[in-house]
Amino acid sequence: MKSLSVLLIAFCLPFAKAEEKIKMYYNNEDLTKIIELYSKASGQKFILDPSVRGKVSIFIPEPVSIDEAFNQLSSALAVNGFGISKQGDTMIVKSARNIQRDLIEVSSAKPSITPERMYIWIYTPQNISAGSITKDLRILTSKDGELSVNENTNQLIICDWVSNIIRISEILKEVDKKVDPSIAKIIENSKKERELRTKESSTKRAEKTEN
Length: 211
What we know:
By secondary structure, this protein is an alpha+beta fold. It has helices at about 1-10, 30-40, 65-80, 95-100, 130-135, 160-175, 180-210; strands spanning about 20, 25-30, 45-50, 55-60, 65, 80-85, 90-95, 105, 120-125, 145-150, 155-160. The radius of gyration is 23 Å and the shape is elongated.
């Protein structure tokens, strides 16, 4: 965990002094131009994948701190489907789908909401099976995210934007609860009724086939 904390701190603190402020007011500006201007102002190194392109608008009237500028930049990149991986003293920018295989944070702790970034969150349900979550809640992840399950340890492995992981954590907080006995009985009766209907349907189809 200590190494992960160091990684996060390094992610959020570019080289420029915290009290310095920079402009973050752009109307339909190229992403690469915004990154270039931020790099010059902060002293942060960037390497951009050739696929990094697109335009974005950021309307913040007053200059902001270096940290806040980075938060806004990370969100602007995410809107266009690009993420950041910090490798040494350099920020690597590429598509969110590709950056999932790069050096990104991995933890069982919920991430901070800023800066926007891809994050691997490992969650262990306490009251329900991880498999049932992947079966019944397939819409948890964003279009760029991935969800897998380790059934041997009853763990969910979620790789997604931190903003969506926060949303997922709130959903799981409500879903991963002990079932009230009266509700459990209703669920069991409903399950038996479905099994009975399935059996009756199969019997009817078999009878039609014989006839």
